[in-house]
Structures are given as structure tokens and as C-alpha cells.
Amino acid sequence: MRVLVIEDEERLARSIARALQDSGMSVDIAADGRTGLWRAREMPYDAITLDRMLPDIAGEELCRTLRSEGCSTPILMLTALTTEGEELDGFDAGADDYLRKPFSPAVLVARLRSLSRRGPVSPSVLHVDDLAVDPRLMTCTRAGTDIALTAREFAVLEALVRRSPAVVSKRELLDLVWGFEFDGDPAIVEVYISYLRRKVDRGADRSLIHTLRGAGYRVGG
Ligand code: CA
Asked: Would you state the pLDDT for residue 122?
């Protein structure tokens, strides 16, 4: 599942992103309201975490704008403020849930999973050829046979399937799945592609996972 994190505090944004990525979600970060609004309009996210206090657009206003445009992506509002009235303002603006800072990453992940199950946003199961990927249940089948994937493998595959038939560069995969702060060896991507190839393509009559030298990776027939 793919989550947009709209948060201006860089350290918090990164720690949220890390927690979500560790549980197999893909994450985009927007550091201000304007960027967040633009991304939410451009991409079909499964959920959005929205900081209430942003430098340019207030969280409530951003939420209200998205709802008025017909966006039904589940929104989890994050706030440092704690009065009941302010929570009600958030719900009034169209937020689906509320979480007070500081919060535990595990609670955040659980709330997002539960919200995304409710949300009618993107089709629940993504199909490419005979491959089916369910971002909410984190399950994957090929020609009806279950494929067991780790959270990280799943996140890489989901990112590729969502863009299929387009090519996704190694850098994009690193940012989406490992996070912008990743400073390890980028060759990790190739390692995961080889894991996926072994699990998804082995024994099949055709390969679905392709490497395009110098460009990136693609899932498709
Ligand atoms: Ca803030």
C-alpha cells in the first residue's frame, strides 16, 4: 500500500516513513501543504497522514479542499494539539481518524491499515498478466498460486506493479521502498529484484520481471 506523508518536521517525517516502510508500505513525503495537495491530486494513495500545523496550508483546510474535489482517500490527521474541539474540527473537515503526537509507530501503522481497509480509493487487487497483488492484505498470487513474500519484497513488487507497464528507476525504488534517507548500497535493489524473480518467475512459462539496463525495472508480459 502507498501512503502520502504530509509533514513539515523533517525528522518526524523520516521516522514516520521508516516505520511505514518497515511494515512494507511505500511512502512519499511532502514537506508542505502545497506539495501535499499536489501529490494527493496526482497519485492514487491508499492513505494520507496529514499534519495539522503546516507552514502554508492548515491541515483542516487541505483536508477540506481534497474532500470538496471528491478525493476519498482515507486521511489520518496528526496533531500536537490535544483539545477535543480541535479533533472535532478535523473530523468536520473530512479527516477519517486522528492521532496525537507523540504516537508510537506501531499504532500509526495499525491505524493506517485499518483506515485503508475502509477506503474505496484504489482497486483492492492489482493485476498484471496472471500476477495478482493485494496491497491491503499484502498477498500475492501468480496464476492462482500463493507466493510468500517478505514485507520488503512485497513493497518492491507493489511499486513496480502500480507503475506497470512503465519502467521504474533504481533511484525511485530506493526512495519509495527504503526511504529518502537510505545511504546504504543501492545494489540492494538488484538483490531484491533477484529475490522477486526467483519467487514470481521461477517455474512460470514467461517472465514478468524485467531489467532494462541503465533505465530500471518493469513488471509486465
Ligand atoms: Ca507541523
From this structure: 52
The grid coordinates of residue 43 equal: 497519485
- φ and ψ of 139, to 5 deg: -115, 155
7 Cα to the center of ligand 1, angstroms:
6
In the reported structure, the alpha carbon of residue 12 is separated from the centroid of ligand 1 by a whole-number distance in angstroms of 9
Residue 61 confidence (pLDDT): 94
Q: Which secondary-structure segment (H or E) carries 157?
A: helix 151-163
Q: What's the 18 CA to ligand 1 centre distance in angstroms?
A: 18
Backbone angles phi, psi at 212, to 5 degrees: -110, 105
The CA 142 to ligand 1 mean position distance, Å, reads 43
Q: What is the DSSP track for 13-43?
A: HHHHHHHHHHTT-EEEEESSHHHHHHHHHHS
Ligand 1 centre to CA of 88 (Å) is 19
Among 60-64, 154-158, 177-181, the minimum mean pLDDT is found in 177-181
Q: How many CA atoms lie less than 13 Å away from 183 in the CB half-sphere? A: 1
C-alpha 87 to ligand 1 mean position (Å): 16
pTM over 0.70: no
